[in-house]
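Side project, low priority. Logging it here so it doesn't get lost.
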Amino acid sequence: MTEISELGGLRAGATAVVDEAYSFACMRCGYGWEQTYEIEHHTDADGHEFVLYVADGRIVPSPLNRPTCGSCDGHLVRILRPGRVASARDAAHRDRRVPAAGPVEAPWEPERPAPLP
């Protein structure tokens, strides 16, 4: 999900802001989470462009370089499109109608003695 935001309330020097949302899944412990980032585009004094990632009002490192699991601090993290973690959680909590297990009848035949030679 990418959206260009209005310039109101940005840090000084930001020329544009793009909102990006990602889902993350830790391959070490299985923890999943989602985060939305405001990606602020800036130009420094030498004319070089750079971006700042802002999450929950704080400047944070790019989630694309080396994401860290908030549960186990591991770095083996898969980045997914937005909504993947939420849809997996929803699927896990849906009312599943699984038929109750009941007695199973298996045919039984007595063993026959082996024929004599």
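Brief comment: The chain has one helix and six strands.
Revisit when time allows.
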